[in-house]
TrEMBL record:
Belongs to the class-I aminoacyl-tRNA synthetase family. This is Leucine--tRNA ligase. The lineage of its organism: Bacteria, Fusobacteriati, Fusobacteriota, Fusobacteriia, Fusobacteriales. Its main location: cytoplasm. It catalyses: tRNA(Leu) + L-leucine + ATP = L-leucyl-tRNA(Leu) + AMP + diphosphate. The gene is leuS. It is found in: Cytoplasm. Residues 39-176 form the Methionyl/Leucyl tRNA synthetase domain.
């Protein structure tokens, strides 16, 4: 018996795997079904954290399991390696972002290899390489030609700390997604957009294909983000004589009048409009309102600078100013005031609203504040269907529920739903409105004022006209003569990059914005299929064969950014002819967070490291000051000093124990509470298995082959043999079913632990005794081999070590997943109840299916029963099959 030494074993097998290239995968394998398992690639921050460890342990368990199940498995890894931190490091330490990034990747790759993951490293990719981002540029150009990319000037989110614009998805509660304390401000800039809104409906409908395979929560978040809303567009004519100078952005009718279209979900309330409002950014404001009324400019600009998201919140103080102008209600010709208000956003609907203060809460608050009229046009109905009495004077809130129309001319008496239809029909007839659908989703703003990203392949001439870079000039590479001084976009400092000659020989200026890094991550799963191809991003046949990815694994935080962008990108690539499939990821597993205990000192106002705390009676105290600390279990993070370093863990306990612990402690989708005792428990489990296998291998039949259940003759088994074999087959069944059931590795491992207990008993009761039978030896061989194979997905190193110890020459990764025999999982004996005259007198072990005669014989042979039978006349014997025998006696 040897000592279990994980460091030695793991190093040895990692070297052998690398030497033999066992994880190399092919795009096609005859007779095998493809299975693509993908963990979200990593941002090379420098070091792995436990969240990575968990993510990759799950992915690797799936990959190894599916491989053993006979699939042609693809399991690659790569680096999401453009982005802000590299640039900040360059500003702070003067190192080029590329150098910083490469060093981080090298270190993290080294750490990953310590975990023994079955990645096909030949396919590794890194998005910061020109070989990768060249294809971003090619897609950009093709999308531009197809109308899926455009440039537009508008108010955009700007993070003063990032010094760049942000997509809406990157603004969280008005703050930057990377700078949680920084208010995002609004800047008017000309920026590049991807036309994701063209796919809004398809992105929504596509959920049907994903439902049941993606967490419902993610689908809901995407649905809300897309925010589909059905309603009507209604045209109000501005009561104003407009001088058209030819370059107006306003909508004009054929009479040259200005049309203010509003979007409403409640056309049934059209007769209740008492005023209308436009957003402060609406083109009417600059073109007409501020010309007529320059005095309100300050007020309007103050509204423009407010946070866009907060502006629409119910509880946000409503602000506004009367424009001095009026608009005309298309159904009754009424003239109502036109206001500019902060609660109307330019980038939703049409940027203008018909206000119905009696029936809309925000309009209600606004009208109360500015003393505007209210008009009730929908009467609520009570439970019995009777109209409720309501009066404007008594209203304390808007009446937002649907009801029966009043004060609405020919529409009086209709219910809200009918009225929506009928009023919209009328608008369509008079040409002043139509049915429409609106989405909250906006086009994806992809340009960033940054160096460390994909250069946008565009050149401008002196008049600002746009030229796409020629295909043969791709990739447009990032220049290296750059200054990182923390001021503005570093690309602006490269003259060589900026100044180019256009195809027509004239002087041109290269676009210095780069692409959002979410562009990189929108198609990387396709690049793995052919990551060294210099002619094409990937082959179409491969893309069709390997997408949608069978199993994608990553954090829920990507629900609306990455996961929505990738779905859009896949559909765009489909429409550009690159792939035929509709979705990138068939199944999605969002793994839960890793939590750890944290220790907060109120006196010092900081989180202490666990090593700074001592523990008494279940409480934590500062070692230095003795202060009792506030302990919580919360998400591991640097700011809370409650993280653990996976590399240290692996060095101390081994990769196998770390993997077993993370997979055992919780099902993959649930939160995982990190716990050193649990980790030590995983180590002890592997250690016990290791000692048991290495200590008893010689008592297993080395000649027994896996075919025909290792040649075991069932009838030659003794009771103990039968029980251990039954337990083995039950365990194989349980482990297989747990994995098939959404990868519940925790119950799978628990089952192996139970088996190990029974194995230990068997060792004591059978193997440690003399004269172990030939049948027992065969059975023990089966038990050892199958148990080792069962742990391959979780503890692959020790599995290979023990596999070899049994004399096998193969890698477990290449073995078949163990099979179980349903018959052998079943009980074969039962306790036969023996009664005399209906009273239980004995219980004996019998084979299931025992014949009536044999059961009767057992009963009559029972010493205990005989006492009540002997000397009496047996009248009859009743046998209930597989249950009991009742001997009826007389005298
Ligand atoms: C009149 C009305 C009467 C409205 C009523 C509601 C209730 P959802 O459901 O989110 O799509 N709205 C339209 N465009 C807007 C904009 N750019 N900024 C702020 N609010 C805007 O909401 C649609 C409703 O939000 C629209 O229907 C409009 O107010 C308002 F009893 O029109 B409603
Ligand atoms: Zn920021």
């Amino acid at each position: 018996i040897k000592e279990y030494n994980p460091n030695e074993i793991e190093k040895k097998w990692q070297d052998k795997w690398a030497q033999k290239d066992v994880f190399k995968s092919k795009n096609k394998a005859d007779g095998k079904e493809n299975y693509y398992v993908l963990e979200m690639f990593a941002y090379p921050s420098g070091k792995l954290h436990v969240g990575h460890l968990r993510n990759y342990a799950i992915g690797d368990a799936i990959a190894r399991y599916k491989k053993m199940k006979g699939f042609n498995v693809l399991h690659p890894f790569g680096w999401d390696s453009f982005g802000l931190p590299a640039e900040n490091a360059a500003i702070d330490h003067g190192a080029h972002p590329g150098k910083w990034t490469k060093a981080n990747i090298d270190n993290m790759r080294r750490q990953l290899k310590l975990m023994g993951l079955s990645y096909d490293w030949d396919r590794e990719l890194s998005t910061y390489t020109p070989e990768y981002y060249k294809w971003n540029q090619k897609f950009f150009i093709e999308m531009y030609k197809k109308g899926l990319v455009y440039k537009k000037k508008s108010f955009v989110n700007w993070c003063p700390d990032c010094n760049t614009v942000l997509a809406n998805e990157q603004v969280e509660d008005g703050k930057c997604w990377r700078h949680s304390k920084t208010d995002v401000i609004q800047k008017e800039l000309s920026q590049w957009y991807f036309k994701i809104t063209d796919y809004a409906e398809e992105l929504l409908q596509g959920h049907e294909e994903l439902r049941g395979h993606w967490p419902e929560q993610v689908l809901t978040m995407q649905k809300n983000w897309i925010g589909k809303s059905t309603g009507s567009e209604v045209d109000f004519i501005l009561d104003y004589k407009f001088e058209n100078n030819g370059n107006s952005h306003l909508k004009l009718n054929d009479k040259g009048e200005v049309v203010i279209s509003v979007f409403t979900t409640r056309p049934d309330t059209l007769y209740g409009v008492t005023y209308a409002t436009v957003a402060p950014e609406h083109p009417l404001v600059e073109e007409v309102i501020l010309k007529e009324n320059p005095g309100i400019r300050e007020k309007v600009e103050a509204m423009r600078n407010e946070d866009k998201i907060a502006r629409t919140a119910e509880d946000k103080e409503k602000e506004g100013v009367f424009s001095g102008l009026y608009v005309i209600n298309p159904v009754n010709g009424e003239k109502v005031q036109l206001w500019v208000a902060n609660y109307v956003l330019m980038d939703y609907g049409t940027g203008a609203v018909m206000a119905v203060p009696a029936h809309d809460e925000r309009d209600f608050q606004f009208a109360k504040k500015y003393n505007l009229d209210l008009k009730i046009v929908v009467n609520p109905v009570d439970k019995n269907g009777n109209l409720e009495e309501v009066s404007v004077e008594k209203l304390e809130n808007a009446l937002t529920v649907p009801g029966i129309l009043v004060n609405s001319e020919e529409f009086n008496g209709l219910n809200s739903n009918e009225a929506k239809e009928k009023i919209t029909e009328k608008l369509e007839k008079i040409g002043l409105g139509k049915k429409t659908v609106n989405y909250r989703l906006h086009d994806w703003l992809i340009s960033r004022q940054r160096y460390w990203g994909t250069p946008i392949p565009v050149i401008y001439d002196e008049d600002g006209n746009i030229y796409l870079e020629e295909k043969e000039n791709l990739p447009v590479k990032l220049p290296t003569d750059i200054e990182f001084n923390g001021k503005g976009n570093p690309l602006e400092t490269s003259e060589e990059f900026k100044n180019v000659i256009l195809p027509n020989g004239k002087k041109g200026r290269r676009e210095t914005d780069t692409m959002d890094t979410f562009v990189d991550s929108s198609w990387y799963y396709l690049r793995y299929l052919d990551s060294h191809n210099v002619e094409k991003p990937f082959e179409k046949a491969d893309a069709d064969a390997w997408t949608p990815v069978n199993q994608y694994i990553g954090g829920i935080e990507h629900a609306v950014m990455h996961l929505l962008y990738a779905r859009f990108f896949h559909k765009s690539l489909r429409d550009l002819g690159y792939v035929d499939t509709n979705e990138p990821f068939k199944k999605l597993l969002t793994q839960g967070m890793v939590l750890g205990p944290s220790f907060y000192s109120q006196n010092e106002r900081r989180y202490l490291f666990p090593r700074e705390a001592e523990f008494k009676d279940g409480k934590a105290f500062s070692i230095e000051t003795g202060e009792e600390l506030i302990t919580k279990v919360e998400k591991m993070s640097k700011s809370k000093n409650n993280g653990v370093d996976p590399e240290e863990i692996v060095k101390e306990y081994g990769a196998d124990s770390s993997r077993v612990f993370t997979l055992f402690a919780a099902p993959p989708e649930k939160e995982l509470e990190w716990n050193m005792n649990g980790l030590a428990g995983a180590y002890r489990f592997i250690n016990r298995l290791y000692l048991l296998v290495s200590g008893t291998a010689e008592f297993s039949d080395h000649n027994a082959k896996s075919e025909n259940h290792y040649g075991v003759e069932l009838k030659n088994r003794n009771q103990k043999d039968e029980e251990i074999q039954k337990k083995l087959h039950q365990t194989v069944k349980k482990v297989t079913e747990s994995i098939e059931d959404d990868f519940h590795f925790n119950t799978a491992i628990a089952a192996v632990m139970e088996l190990l207990n029974d194995m230990t008993t068997y060792k004591q009761e059978v193997i440690d005794k003399d004269n172990i039978s030939t049948e027992s030896k065969k059975i023990w061989r089966e038990v050892l081999e199958k148990t080792i194979l069962l742990i391959v997905p979780f503890a692959p190193h020790v599995a290979d070590e023990l596999w070899a110890y049994l004399g096998n020459k193969t890698f477990t990764f290449e073995e078949e997943w163990p099979k179980y025999d349903e018959e052998l999982t079943k009980d074969h004996t039962f306790n036969l109840v023996i009664q005399v005259n209906g009273k239980v007198r004995d219980m004996v072990l019998a084979q299931i299916g025992i014949s009536k005669d044999d059961a009767e014989k057992l009963a009559l042979e029972s010493e205990k029963a005989k006492k009540f039978i002997n000397g009496k006349e047996i009248v009859k014997v009743i046998v209930v099959p597989n249950k009991l025998v009742n001997v009826v006696v007389k005298g």
